[in-house]
Design brief:
By secondary structure, the chain is α/β, with parallel strands linked by helices. Helix content is about 40%, strand content about 15%. The protein has a 5-stranded parallel beta sheet with strand order 1-6-5-2-4. The protein has a two-stranded antiparallel ribbon with strand order 3-7. Helix 2 packs across helix 6. The termini are far apart.
């Protein structure tokens, strides 16, 4: 009986140890391979779908994750600027409702694809990356490009934060 208990404990310990070691860190040959995998894991919003959302949806988050100099030169009207390198640190203060649709874009869709893989880990449930990015947006909708945007404080499609609430509200 004692030997049976020891064998069971040993098998359980081996199982536990092997399951902890199954978390492998995936390595990539280059950034392009990393971005391609990210693109295979996310949902996209087409240029036309984003245009319709801007025209028809009441509230959603449109996040421009390009660097400040790119954002300062031009963006999509109503976009919230959160550079990709600061996304994890700033998104919850600028996009507080985790159930709201989030549409994110960068110049060509690479950085926004990476960002779109992170946001669900931060409990954002409806995240889509703009297919082909801002570069294509400028070509398809030049009349919907804001030159030298004032900043995301003027965004009209962003809901106001919930008032009160304590304990994370």
């Amino acid at each position: 009986m004692r030997q049976r208990i020891q064998s069971t404990v040993l098998l359980f310990a081996l199982f536990l140890f092997s399951s902890c070691n199954s978390l492998e860190l995936k390595e990539y040959k280059n950034t392009d391979e990393l971005v391609e995998e990210a693109r295979s894991e996310i949902d996209f919003i087409s240029q036309e779908e984003l245009k319709a959302a801007i025209d028809n949806e009441k509230q959603f988050y449109l996040i421009d994750c390009r660097e400040k100099t790119a954002y300062d030169s031009a963006s999509i009207p109503g976009a919230i600027h959160i550079p990709r390198g600061l996304l994890e640190f700033q998104v919850s203060t600028k996009a507080h409702d985790h159930n709201r649709n989030v549409y994110i874009f960068c110049e060509d869709g690479s950085k926004s694809a990476l960002a779109a893989t992170v946001l669900p880990r931060l409990k954002y449930s409806n995240v889509k990356s703009l297919k082909d990015g801002f570069k294509a947006w400028k070509q398809n909708y030049p009349d919907m490009v804001e030159l030298e945007p004032d900043g995301d404080e003027t965004a009209t499609n962003v809901p106001a934060p919930a008032s009160g609430g304590g304990c994370g509200g």
